[in-house]
Each structure stands twice: as C-alpha cells, then as structure tokens.
Amino acid sequence: MKISRNEQRALHVLALGGRILHERESGPKITSVICVTREGMILSDLDMTIFNKLKRKRLIESRCGSPYHISKRGRLSVRAQPDNQGA
C-alpha cells in the first residue's frame, strides 16, 4: 500500500499517542479535523483530504464517537522514523 509523506507524518504522530479530533455540524458528515500530538501540539499538515485517505485505507479508527486513533493496520503500515525527543 502506498502511503504519502503527509499520511506517514500523521500516522507517526498517532502512533506516538496523538489523536484526531473531529467536528460535525448537523448530521453524520465530518466537517473539520484537528490532529493533536501527545504533548498537545497541533499538526498543521492534516487536512480533510488526508483524513479521508487515512479513513478509506482503514489506517485510523474511532469507536463510539471518540477521537480517531491509529488502528492495528495503521500501526503495521507506518514506517519507522527516528524519534527526536531524546536529542
């Protein structure tokens, strides 16, 4: 499965404990998304297009209306990246 650089970046943030907060106006359709890291920072690269691609590929999931997290399939698909937090 081909995963773009922005999709990889979002999956990496989610794998480290981040989440995607979503908003709905009226009805079941999601109108906006915000990717929040474990530390509370906002990932600006995630937009509705990338969110829909991740959702269509079943790399992220939400249960009972909670924020979106990485799925098992997403954890297996994300490529390893060096963690800069210890530097």
Automatic annotation (TrEMBL):
<protein>
    <submittedName>
        <fullName>Uncharacterized protein</fullName>
    </submittedName>
</protein>
<dbReference type="Pfam" id="PF09857">
    <property type="entry name" value="YjhX_toxin"/>
</dbReference>
<dbReference type="InterPro" id="IPR018654">
    <property type="entry name" value="YjhX_toxin"/>
</dbReference>
